[in-house]
Amino acid sequence: MYNLNKIPTTDYNDFFQKVYFISIIKNIIKIADLDDTKKTILDFGCGQKILSKTLKNVKVLNYDIKEEFSDLKSYKNLKFDIIVFNHVLMYMRPEEISNLLDELREMNPNSKIIVGLGKQNILSKIGKFLTGNRKAHENTMSTYKEQINILLKKTTFLKKKSNIFFMTDIYYTKF
Asked: Which helix (H) or strand (E) holds 158?
């Protein structure tokens, strides 16, 4: 299925990655007003758990395909109100994204979804060169456009925050 060594994890010890991804996390929190929510959040692809470290008084279920980052063996059969996918969907094929959304809707049909999508545009390419992170976006399996089209088919858009450093858009949607 996945070669886990080829799926990158954000390195928060790297100054540029830290600034970029912390900004995205802050915008994810802001777009859905998550600061003091009583709702349960599934952070799908949690990596180093920056969302739960930032939201100290919020129940965040940390799931990652890489066992060393995940607090959970599986996301299946969990109850949650909000799902966060931050720079995760691009490492899935379009049919996997579609199937996953169907599965999550079946599990929790009233869930809201927050998706951080890397644009993988010219600025991203310049940025990864300037920051020395040349492997960023390597091994992606779906394009920004494919991800958006799936979200449009599977969810209803509530809000959009565009252009975090002109490289990421955040979408707040619901099933």
From this structure: strand 156-164
Q: Which DSSP string corresponds to 51-102?
A: HHHH-TTS-EEEE-SSTTT-S-S-STT---SEEEEES-GGGS-HHHHHHHHH
Write out pLDDT tens, residues 57-69.
999 999 999 999 9
Q: Quick one: pLDDT band at residue 132, thresholds 50, 70, 90?
A: low
DSSP per-residue codes, 134-153:
TTTTTT--S-HHHHHHHHHH
* CATH annotation of 12-28+38-174: 3.40.50.150
Query: What six digits make up the tokens of 118?
Result: 């890397």
pTM above 0.85, yes or no: yes
Q: How far apart are CA 175 and CA 44, in angstroms?
A: 16
Q: Rounded distance, CA 17 to CA 9, Å?
A: 10
Where do the structural domains in the chain lie, given as residue ranges? 12-28+38-174
User: What is the three-class DSSP state of 129?
Assistant: helix
Walk across the sheet containing 168-174 and list its strands.
60-63, 41-44, 82-86, 112-118, 168-174, 156-164
